[in-house]
């Protein structure tokens, strides 16, 4: 068995078809079928169940295919290490960010990296914080933009910028005419927050708890854009990070808090064992050049 055979196994498993898998692998269907049969014979097990209509992995086949994926991933990692050794500012960079940041930072960051680091191929991942931390530890991504602090002996962090919170209210809301707001101004207001699992929800709840504010329990959103539209519709008010503020929005006002304004610290997080130090340092510098005005 060789690496080519592993690619064949994965293609058949993904497409559930020898014909389509052969097209993906750029070989004839009989050649692919013969090669898969040779692998099964050499192992002495059946990897796929074959019918006239479809191909399905056996229970053991699923385990073998999962192992094949891991092996090819590690081989790719070895090749990537070799490329990095030759040019530290080249190769794939798998970068993660949580949803309330990724939506607003990635569109600015991608063209900036293409210009400043033309040999880098950026692979973006948008997930909640817990999933990104898990992917970091498992080596599935190289770094992540997260809200600090992150306390983990396996991970290193660097602060990049402070993302201040503003109060978002409808244009005809009684608070809309204020130059600045204090947490006390929010008393009795319908406060809209994101659903469980979003780090921005955690930051907002901290503000609420410190100032005796209550969330509107019957309404929760899965994203900031939903919250934005609900505020415009007069459903309630919400906290909006600076990165998400759009000056051209109609029907909504973004009010700064009186000092000390609440904020979250955005930082870069990576494995302490990473060999991408030069590239990650440059990435952090590029993020710090972004503008949110």
From TrEMBL:
Native organism: Methylovulum psychrotolerans
Listed Pfam families: HTH_1 (PF00126), LysR_substrate (PF03466)
UniProt KW keywords: Activator, DNA-binding, Transcription, Transcription regulation
Protein name per Swiss-Prot or TrEMBL: DNA-binding transcriptional regulator OxyR
CDD domains: PBP2_OxyR
Domain HTH lysR-type: 1-58
Record InterPro entries: LysR_HTH_N, LysR_subst-bd, WH-like_DNA-bd_sf, WH_DNA-bd_sf
GO CC, one annotated term: protein-DNA complex
Family, as annotated: Belongs to the LysR transcriptional regulatory family.
């Amino acid at each position: 068995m060789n690496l080519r055979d592993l690619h064949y196994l994965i293609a058949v498993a993904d497409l559930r078809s020898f014909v389509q898998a052969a097209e993906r692998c750029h070989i004839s269907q009989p050649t692919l079928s013969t090669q898969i049969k040779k692998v099964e014979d050499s192992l002495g097990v059946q990897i796929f169940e074959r019918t006239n209509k479809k191909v399905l992995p056996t229970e053991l086949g699923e385990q073998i295919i999962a192992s094949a994926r891991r092996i090819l991933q590690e081989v790719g990692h070895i090749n990537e290490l070799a490329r990095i050794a030759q040019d530290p500012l080249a190769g794939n960079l798998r970068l993660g960010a949580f949803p309330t940041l990724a939506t607003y930072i990635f569109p600015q960051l991608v063209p900036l990296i293409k210009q400043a680091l033309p040999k880098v191929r950026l692979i973006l991942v948008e997930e909640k914080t817990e999933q990104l931390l898990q992917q970091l530890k498992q080596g599935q991504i190289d770094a992540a933009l997260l809200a600090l602090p992150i306390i983990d002996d396996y991970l290193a962090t660097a602060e990049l910028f402070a993302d201040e919170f503003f109060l978002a209210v409808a244009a005809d809301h009684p608070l809309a005419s204020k130059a600045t707001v204090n947490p006390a101004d929010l008393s009795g207001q319908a406060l809209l927050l994101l659903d469980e699992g979003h780090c921005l929800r955690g930051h907002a709840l901290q503000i609420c708890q410190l100032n005796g504010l209550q969330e509107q329990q019957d309404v929760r959103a899965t994203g900031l854009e939903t919250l934005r539209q609900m505020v415009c519709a007069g459903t309630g008010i919400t906290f909006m990070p600076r990165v998400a503020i759009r000056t051209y929005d109609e029907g909504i006002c973004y009010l700064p808090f009186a000092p000390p304004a609440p904020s979250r610290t955005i930082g870069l997080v990576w494995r302490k064992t990473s060999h991408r130090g030069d590239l990650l340092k440059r990435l952090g510098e590029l993020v710090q050049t972004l503008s949110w005005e």
